[in-house]
Structures are given as C-alpha cells and as structure tokens.
C-alpha cells in the first residue's frame, strides 16, 4: 500500500517537473519573442532617427546632427533654460548660450560680414556680390571661440590648391576662429532660392572641398561637410599645412531659411573642449515651428 | 516493472511537453518571420522614393535598392528589352514603341546642338532617347524664366549666338544618360559624387524643388523645373513648364547622370509619362 502511495507521489512529482519545464519553456519563448520584437522596434526607431554623423575624411571625430529634434514648438522653446539657450522667438530659432572660453553671442546683420577686417571671412558672403542688396539687413548670430588661430600667408601659400598672393591681402596674417554662425534669412527676401538651391550654392562656393551632401528624403534639411586646406602657411611662426573643417546645416521654418555654419580650426595647443562645445552648439540649434 | 513501464499520466505529460516545445519553437519562428518581414518592408520602403514635381504635377518613383547590379545579373537581362552596355557599365530600357531610336553621341556633339562650345571632357559618351516631334518655342527679351526676367548679359549673349529675337528653341520629352569616367573628369577637379553634383548644378538654370541624397549612399536625386512665361508656341502666347528629374550615381570607375525631361504637350499620349517612368525604373549601373 505504501509502495503504491510512494509510486503515485513519484509519478506526481515527475508530472509537476514536466509541467514546470513546459512553463519555463513557454516563459523563455515569450521572452525571446519579446526580445526579437524589441530588437525590431529598436531597429525601426534607429532607421527613423535620422541622426547623421559627418566626419571630415582626415578627422576621426564626426559632427552629428539629429535632424529629428531640429523642430520644436513654441511652448517647448519657451520652457528651455535661458542660461543654456537663447530663444529668438521673432526669428523662429533657438541657439545655445556661449560656453566658457567663447565670446558673447554677436548679433549682427548680413552686411556686417563684408566689413570685417583681419579675419578669415565666412563663405556666407559669397552668396552676394557686395552690400546693398535685399539680404543686407538679414539677422545673423555668431558665437566665436575667444582664442583665434593666427595664420600668416607667405609666398607659395595655397588655399584649397589655389595660390594666395599675400601682397593682395590687407594683412598677410589673419585670425581664424572656430565658430558657429546662424543666418536667419527671410523667405520674402530670398525668393530667388529654394532651400536646396541655398545648399547647392553654398556647396558650389566650396567646389573641390565638399566631402558630403546629405538630404534625407523625409526631412526639410540639408547637411554638408567641407574640408578647406591651407598649405604652406605660418602658424605661430612655424610653417604648416592646415585643414579647416566646415559643416553647414540648411533648415527652414514657416517664414525663414536658416543657414547654420560651423567652422573648426585645428590648433596644436587648443583646448580639447572646443570640439565638444561646437557639437553642443549644433545640438542646441532648433527651429520653432 | 513500474519503473520500466511509464504510467499513462507521464506519457500524457510528455506529449504535453512536446506540444509546449513545439508551441515555443513555432512562436519563435513566427516572431522571427514577422521581424524579418517588418525589416524587409521597412528596407523596401526606404528604397522606394517617389519624387513629385511641385503643384501636384507628375511624380517619378525610384527604386534605389536596385540601381546597382552585378555583371552576371546584367548578362541575364533580355537584350531585346534592355540595352546592356558593359563597356560603359550601365543598362537602359530600349526605346519603347513610339519613341525615337537610342542615339549615342559625345558631350561635344550634345553641346553643339545648343550652339555651345565644348571645352573639357568632350569625348565622354551621351545616350539619348527622345519622343516624337519637339515643341518649338519662340522667346524674346520679355520672356520670364521662373517668374524672373532673364539677366541682360544672358540676353546679350543669346543675341550674339542666335541673332536678333525671337529665338527658337526646341524641347522634347526625353531621357538622357551621361557617363563620365572618373579618370576623365579629374581635370575638372571632380573627386567624388558631391563634386559631380555641384558641377552639374552650377549650370542648371531651373528651380531645384527637391534633393534627396541619403547619408552614405552612392546616388542622389534632384527634381527641378523651369517655367517660361511670355513665350509663343505656334505663334500663340503661351506658358510652358519643363520638369526635370536627375539621378546621379557613382560606380567604381565612372559617374552616371540620368536626366528625365518632361513637358506636357497638347494631344500627347499619357503613355509618354509612363514610358519615362519605365526608362528611369529600369536604369541600372553595372558594378
């Protein structure tokens, strides 16, 4: 009788263990299924993220632009911390506040670019032959690194392969700044251009130095990356070859186009934060929709 | 004896266990198939690009996933339907019924048709398929292009080249394939696809309505249009719009530019548009 009872208990245990294994398998299967589903969702999200990273061919650090987060609504823009962000609601744009080691935000007009002396000029001026056109009073904001790299052009110096004649310059030594410049261009004053035409023209102005043009199909933006080589120049008294890196983001809001130009000037004794700061400035850029 | 012969309950449990295992395996397979299908669908969606002309005109679609094919795949194509050019590394649909025969010329000959002088890469090949009779338009100094007057220096140049206005210009619906060998275009400072795009767009006079150039891709698509106001067609005042779609592609040794030019003509068969779509759809670069 006891044997029979023991046998029955043994049998019940086996049954319970088998049932437990079945349950465990079902749980594992469910979790694996969820994992596969999760991976698929992550993949899908990543595909849609449209985060683009453009590095210069010679450089190891890419500058990234998360084009999904460029657009922001007014309420979100107004809730940003003013110590970190400068919200220019009338221009429909948000930019970063300068970090330590950078100059204050310069509020300028497009025409002011033409009157700068002693510095490497922004290629934005090449959109126009000279002042007195309808872009003159277009607002422009700039954050410049406080420490320029002084570059002296000497006989034999070249700029992207083209000979530079130092005697034709007002000064043979020019200050080159790592900087971010935002031109907020009223669409009414830029009727000759579509967003893509602005991007193409900026690229054409850099012909021979453009490494990448990115315009994804579902977004109203274009990003370009340019290398600009200065060879046979003098930096801090030493002859050197230097490659300036430039990125430009072209975006649009309801009333304005935005050209965001980021310049990076490499220098031997430069603070390592300059690069990170430029990335932070680009990350902070928003168009208020 | 009891150990050797399992009870029916255990047998039932084992069968149940096998059932559970099968359910789990089936579930996993189902999830995998669903995921693969979702990924495939997403990838295909990302490859299918429809680029419309503005104001609701025609939309041309591109299957960017099949622009590049291997030599084996190209060799397997039906030569009656496809023009497979191994020398220049591309495939084009042969002229459809009603279209002119495929013309092969050089850049120099192409420019000469527009009374322009070729100064570089003149021997590079051009392939063209046109449709029917061209539209001949008469333009003059009052003609507006994209809502803007033509700059006076260009008008003066036209007068020097073509004599006093009106100037007669012909427009076809057509597909044009330009092949630029990388070695040949180095003289123009072209190192990469962005250089090629920028050089071509430097001379493009129309509006650029759309540009698609995905990160890391070997192609770019541009949609543009040119509207002429104040012209005359068959002696009557008219406005005409020409839509362009440009596909730029880069292979190992050459750049390719496929241009579709389309203009609506009165009395023209709607099939013309479908045919242009076919030419673009079946263009391939042989890798």
Fraction in helix of chain A: 25-40%
Summarize model confidence as the mean pLDDT of chain B: 86
* Count of alpha and pi helical runs of chain B: 7
Whole-number count of domains of chain A: 2
Structural class, judged by helices and strands of chain A? Answer: alpha+beta
Low-confidence stretches of chain B: none
CATH topology of the largest domain in chain B: Protein Transport Mog1p, Chain A
What does this structure look like?
The complex is a heterodimer of chains A (289) and B (287). Chain A is α+β, with helices and mostly antiparallel strands. Chain A has 2 domains: 1-49; 50-288, Protein Transport Mog1p, Chain A, CATH 3.40.1000. Helix content of chain A is 26%, strand content 35%. Chain A has helices at residues 2-49, 74-78, 195-205, 273-284, and strands at residues 51-55, 62-66, 71-72, 85-88, 93-96, 106-109, 139-144, 149-159, 162-163, 173-176, 179-186, 210-214, 221-235, 238-252, 256-264, 286-288. In chain A, the strands form 3 sheets. In chain A, strands 6, 7, 8, 9, 10, 11, 12, 13, 14 and 15 form a 10-stranded antiparallel β-sheet that branches. A 4-stranded mixed β-sheet of chain A has the order 3-16-5-4. Chain A has a two-stranded antiparallel sheet with strand order 1-2. In chain A, a hairpin with a 3-residue loop joins β14 (238-252) and β15. The N and C termini of chain A lie far apart (84 Å). Chain B has 287 residues and is an alpha+beta fold. Chain B has 2 domains: 1-48; 53-286, 3-Layer(aba) Sandwich (Protein Transport Mog1p, Chain A), CATH 3.40.1000.10. Chain B contains 7 helices and 17 strands. In chain B, the strands form 3 sheets. In chain B, strands 6, 7, 8, 9, 10, 11, 12, 13, 14, 15 and 16 form an 11-stranded antiparallel β-sheet that branches. In chain B, a hairpin with a 3-residue loop joins β15 and β16. Classes of the chains: A alpha+beta (289), B alpha+beta (287). Chains A and B meet through α1, α3 and β12 of A and α1, α6 and β13 of B.
């Amino acid at each position: 009788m006891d044997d029979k009872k023991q046998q029955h208990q043994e049998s019940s245990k086996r049954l319970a263990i088998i049932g437990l294994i079945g349950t465990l398998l079902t749980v594992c299967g469910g979790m694996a299924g969820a994992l596969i589903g999760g991976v698929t969702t992550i993949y899908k999200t990543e595909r849609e993220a449209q985060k683009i990273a453009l590095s210069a061919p010679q450089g190891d650090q890419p500058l990234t632009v998360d084009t999904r987060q460029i657009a922001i609504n007014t309420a979100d823009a107004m809730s940003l911390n003013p110590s970190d962000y400068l919200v220019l609601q009338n221009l429909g744009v948000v930019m970063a506040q300068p970090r330590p080691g950078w100059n204050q935000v310069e509020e300028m007009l497009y025409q002011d670019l033409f009157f700068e002396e002693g510095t490497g000029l922004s290629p934005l001026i090449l959109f126009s032959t000279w002042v007195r056109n309808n872009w003159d009073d277009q607002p422009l904001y700039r954050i410049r690194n406080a420490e320029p790299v002084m570059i002296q052009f000497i006989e034999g110096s070249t700029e992207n392969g083209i000979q530079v004649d130092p005697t034709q310059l007002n000064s043979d030594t020019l200050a080159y700044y790592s900087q971010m410049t935002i031109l907020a261009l009223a669409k009414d004053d830029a009727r000759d251009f579509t967003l893509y035409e602005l991007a193409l023209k900026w690229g054409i102005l850099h012909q021979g130095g453009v490494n990448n043009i990115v315009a994804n199909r579902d977004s109203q933006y274009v990003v370009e990356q340019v290398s600009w080589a200065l060879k046979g120049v003098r930096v801090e008294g030493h002859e050197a070859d230097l490659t300036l890196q430039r990125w430009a983001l072209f975006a649009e809001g309801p009333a304005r186009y935005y050209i965001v130009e980021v310049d990076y000037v490499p220098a031997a004794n430069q603070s390592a934060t300059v690069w990170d700061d430029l990335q932070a400035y680009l990350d902070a850029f928003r168009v208020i929709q | 004896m009891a150990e050797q012969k399992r009870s029916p309950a255990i047998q039932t449990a084992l069968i149940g266990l096998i059932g559970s295992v099968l359910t789990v395996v089936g579930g996993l397979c189902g999830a995998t198939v669903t995921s693969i299908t979702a990924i495939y669908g997403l990838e295909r969606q990302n490859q299918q690009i429809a680029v419309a002309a503005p104001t609701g005109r025609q939309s041309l679609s591109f299957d960017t996933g099949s622009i590049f094919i291997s030599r084996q795949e190209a060799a397997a194509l039906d030569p009656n339907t496809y023009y497979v050019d191994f020398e220049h590394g591309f495939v084009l649909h042969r002229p459809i019924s009603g279209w002119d025969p495929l013309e092969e010329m050089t850049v120099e000959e192409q420019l000469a048709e527009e009374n322009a002088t070729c100064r570089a890469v003149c021997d590079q090949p051009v392939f063209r398929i046109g449709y029917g009779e061209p539209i001949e338009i008469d333009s003059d100094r009052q003609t507006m292009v994209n809502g803007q007057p033509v700059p006076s220096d260009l008008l003066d140049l036209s007068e020097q080249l073509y004599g006093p206005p009106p100037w007669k210009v012909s427009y076809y619906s057509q597909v044009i394939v330009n092949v630029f060998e990388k070695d040949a275009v180095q003289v123009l400072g072209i190192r990469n696809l962005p250089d090629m795009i920028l050089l071509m767009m430097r001379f493009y006079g129309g509006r650029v309505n759309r540009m698609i150039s995905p990160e890391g891709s070997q192609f770019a698509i541009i949609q543009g249009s040119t509207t002429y106001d104040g012209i005359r067609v068959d002696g009557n005042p008219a406005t005409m719009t020409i839509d362009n779609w440009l596909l730029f592609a880069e292979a190992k040794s050459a750049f390719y530019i496929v241009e579709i030019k389309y203009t609506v003509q009165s009395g023209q068969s709607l099939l013309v548009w479908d045919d242009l779509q076919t030419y673009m759809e079946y263009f391939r670069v042989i890798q």
